[in-house]
Design goal:
Helices cover 47% and strands 14% of the residues. It is α/β, with parallel strands linked by helices and 342 residues long. The strands form three sheets. The protein has a four-stranded parallel β-sheet, with helices on both faces. The protein has a three-stranded antiparallel β-sheet with strand order 7-8-9, with no helix packed on it. The N and C termini lie far apart (93 Å). It binds guanosine-5'-diphosphate. Guanosine-5'-diphosphate binds next to helix 1. One of its GO terms (molecular function) is GTP binding. Its main location: cytoplasm. It is found in: Cytoplasm. This is Septin-type G domain-containing protein.
């Protein structure tokens, strides 16, 4: 996923990274539309081949992010999208056809920081804080050819300080195994020291000393996208589609998705518990109603018994006075509405 405001060179970088032209039919937003613009999600799938391995890669763009006058809640659309993918995976995993799940979860989020500031802006901090527990955030400094080497170093260190101050957890590169060879260890150290990657993108292929390469031609010289002395593009590319792709997928599965899953399960448990409590309360209320009805019936029986006693006494008195009753009266408490047996 690529996130950053319009014009920071996201499309150009994606095209440079995967050597495609993914944004042929793109409509660049006008100034007027930017004011009210909301963040949208655009997905594009490409097939790339890396060292003979075919990869299906989905690039998720977030046009409109950071473009509106009020971009306080720009992160919400992105968060919703990330959650939706987790949720879809959760549903698929709980279904019957678990073997053929299509994984659309976001494994990496390239967050573009503009080169013209002094570090992270409030908007950047807010985005990262809202999403760092859901997705692997890899910050990059956009259009780094606009800065000198010392300026880049200063900006990098400011960004890392901001990340630390705000307790943001960007993607943590795994520790290198102790038995790796020294070259690999050195490469790993350099990679970690380069974060946030200062990148340059270009849609143009330029010929330099008989060699064709992606670069940006200025009146004063050429910036080569794939030259490690010019920018961190190669480091980013290698890390993304080669050295750290698997780790980012594992972190997504084992940490971010597991967090989401645990939350889902605890919410489901809470709902089930509420339902059970509700049922309990209802059955207790029903039990009370039954109790009331029983009490009424008992009272009625009691009344009938008393009436029966009175009748018996009256009959006794009539017998004593020598007058035979014309009818024998009886009340049957079993049949509560039978009053007279003739
Ligand atoms: P998006 O809106 O973030 O996708 O930005 P685009 O990729 O469309 O780039 C916006 C403008 O910036 C275009 O004119 C690009 O040619 C230019 N651009 C892209 N990448 C770079 C870069 O690395 N350095 C400089 N100086 N300009 C760039």
């Amino acid at each position: 996923m690529v996130v950053g405001e319009s014009g920071l060179g996201k499309s150009t970088l994606i095209n440079s990274l995967f050597l495609t032209d993914l944004y042929k039919d793109r409509k660049v937003p006008t100034g007027e539309s930017l004011v009210e613009k909301t963040v949208t999600i655009e997905k594009k799938t490409i097939e790339i081949e890396e060292r003979g391995v075919k990869l299906r890669l989905t690039v998720v763009d977030t046009p409109g992010f950071g473009d509106a006058v009020n971009c306080e809640e720009g992160w919400k659309t992105v968060e919703r999208y990330v959650d939706e993918q987790f949720n879809k995976f959760f549903q698929d995993e709980s279904g019957l056809n678990r073997k053929n799940i299509q994984d659309h979860r976001v494994h990496c989020c390239l967050y573009f920081v503009p080169p013209y500031g002094h570090g992270l802006r409030q908007m950047d901090v807010e985005f990262m804080r809202r999403l760092h527990r859901k997705v692997n955030i890899v910050p990059v400094i956009a259009k780094s050819d606009t800065l000198t080497k010392p300026e880049i170093n200063k900006l990098k260190s400011n960004i890392m300080n901001d990340i630390e101050t705000h307790k943001i957890k960007i993607y943590q590169f795994p520790e290198c195994d102790s038995d790796e060879d020294e070259d690999f260890k050195q490469q790993d150290r350099e990679l970690k020291a380069s974060i946030p990657f200062a990148v340059i993108g270009s849609n143009c292929v330029i010929e330099v000393a008989g060699k064709k390469m992606r670069g940006r031609q200025y009146p004063w010289g050429i910036v080569e996208v794939e030259n490690t002395a010019h920018c961190d593009f190669v480091k980013l590319r290698t890390m993304l589609i080669s050295t750290h792709m698997q780790d980012m997928k594992e972190v997504t599965q084992d940490i971010h998705y597991e967090n989401f899953r645990a939350q889902c399960i605890s919410q489901m448990q809470q709902v089930a518990l509420k339902e059970r409590n509700k049922l309990k309360r209802e059955s207790a209320a029903n039990f009370d109603t039954v109790g009331d009805a029983d009490r009424l019936l008992q009272q009625k029986d009691e009344e009938i018994r008393r009436m029966q006693e009175m009748l018996n006494q009256m009959q006794e008195k009539l017998k004593e006075s020598g007058k035979e009753p014309a009818v024998s009266l009886a009340l049957d408490p079993g049949k509560r509405d039978s009053v007279v047996n003739v």
